């Protein structure tokens, strides 16, 4: 995919008064059928404080954004897509604030972050180290637009094949799950699962994988996609779900 291949890239937005990017997106909800309001079950961690978020759904929603470049044509490396507006904390026990969650539009190759020592636990992995040092340092002046936020490393469930997006969401936010604070993470398995909308929230990712492969977050079989959930230390993969 080229950065200028008929994609409506949001870039260099100017407002007469300062508006948070999250507010700008939420102002489009009524006019955008592919930006869906999602109301979640209460979890051990969130209580009733963060039950509602907004997700881009479908096979190819217009959710592109150019981040880290002021060029008229967005470079491929600066092209991102908006997962949604999701309430997050900046620390354990902190208040929830609506934040925009971005994901790179183009894959980051394994050779970028592979090394001699790794772990399947995100905060001990080479992926974490690469994203929060090398990648973080590469965005220089744009670091000020990224918040340190709380990431949930999930609770492993043995029968991954039967897990639905809603169940992944609850597992990720289990009160006993490991939590870290960092600026950069990976998508949750639930993020991947919510990409097709409410019809699929209670359908397992594995059993309905052909349908989920039609969603906008699916990259390719060759690339694979990592999520941030924790898996047993005996597993050689860095994160739990190689979709």
Tell me about this structure.
By secondary structure, the chain is α+β, with helices and mostly antiparallel strands. The protein has one domain (21-212). 16% of the residues lie in helices and 16% in strands. The chain has six helices and seven strands. It has helices at 21-26, 110-113, 126-138, 165-172, 189-193, 209-212; strands spanning 35-39, 52-56, 64-66, 79-88, 97-104, 149-152, 179-182. The strands form two sheets. Strands 1, 2, 3, 4 and 5 form a five-stranded antiparallel beta sheet that branches. It has a two-stranded antiparallel ribbon with strand order 6-7. The longest helix is centred in the middle third of the chain and has 13 residues, at 126-138. It is globular, with a radius of gyration of 17 Å. The relative contact order is 0.15. Mean pLDDT is 81; it is low at 1-6 and 232-243.
């Amino acid at each position: 995919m080229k950065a200028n291949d008929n994609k409506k890239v949001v870039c260099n937005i100017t407002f007469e008064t300062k508006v948070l990017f999250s507010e700008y997106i939420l102002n489009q909800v009524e006019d955008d059928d592919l930006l869906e309001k999602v109301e979640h079950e209460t979890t051990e961690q969130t209580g009733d404080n963060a039950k509602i978020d907004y997700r881009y759904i479908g096979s190819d929603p217009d959710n592109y954004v150019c981040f880290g470049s002021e060029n008229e044509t967005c470079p491929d490396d600066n092209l991102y897509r908006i997962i949604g507006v999701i309430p997050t904390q900046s620390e354990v026990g902190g208040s929830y604030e609506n934040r925009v969650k971005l994901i790179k539009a183009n894959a980051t190759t394994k050779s970028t972050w592979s090394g001699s020592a790794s772990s399947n636990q995100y905060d001990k992995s080479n992926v974490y180290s690469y994203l929060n040092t090398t990648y973080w340092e590469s965005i220089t002046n744009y670091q000020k637009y990224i918040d340190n936020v709380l990431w949930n490393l999930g609770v492993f469930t043995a029968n991954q094949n039967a897990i639905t997006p809603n169940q992944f969401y609850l597992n990720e936010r289990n009160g006993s799950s490991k939590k870290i604070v960092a600026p950069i993470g990976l998508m949750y398995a639930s993020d991947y699962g919510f990409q097709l909308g409410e019809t699929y929230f209670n359908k397992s990712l594995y059993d309905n994988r052909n349908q989920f492969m039609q969603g906008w977050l699916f990259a390719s079989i060759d690339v694979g996609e990592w999520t941030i959930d924790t898996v047993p230390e005996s597993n050689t993969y860095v994160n739990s779900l190689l979709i």
